[in-house]
Specification:
This protein has one domain. Helices cover about 0% and strands about 40% of the residues. The protein has strands spanning about 5, 10-20, 30-35, 45-50.
């Protein structure tokens, strides 16, 4: 199994292990744990994906919690100056 996933921007996610997971329906599965460095400060960040990670968007994460952009709904208007 591939131990790394390279992204187009040059970041590399490293597979560091697996962990058991219980779905909402009670069935058991396994999640793969990956890590890379924050694009700003280099702090290690982790994501968890299904074993078949071909459709996940988790690899798009680039920043640690301190540097990620705050979530904001798309329909919120900026205040007029």
């Amino acid at each position: 199994m591939n131990q790394q996933k390279a992204m187009p921007d040059g970041r590399v996610w490293r597979r560091i292990g697996t962990e058991p997971y219980i779905r909402k329906d009670g069935s058991e599965t396994v999640l793969v744990v990956w890590e890379t460095g924050c694009a700003v400060c280099g702090t290690l960040i982790q994501i968890r994906t299904p074993v078949d990670f071909s459709t996940t968007k988790a690899f798009l994460r680039k920043h640690c919690d301190a540097h990620k952009k705050a979530w904001r709904p798309f329909n919120v208007q900026k205040p007029a100056c």
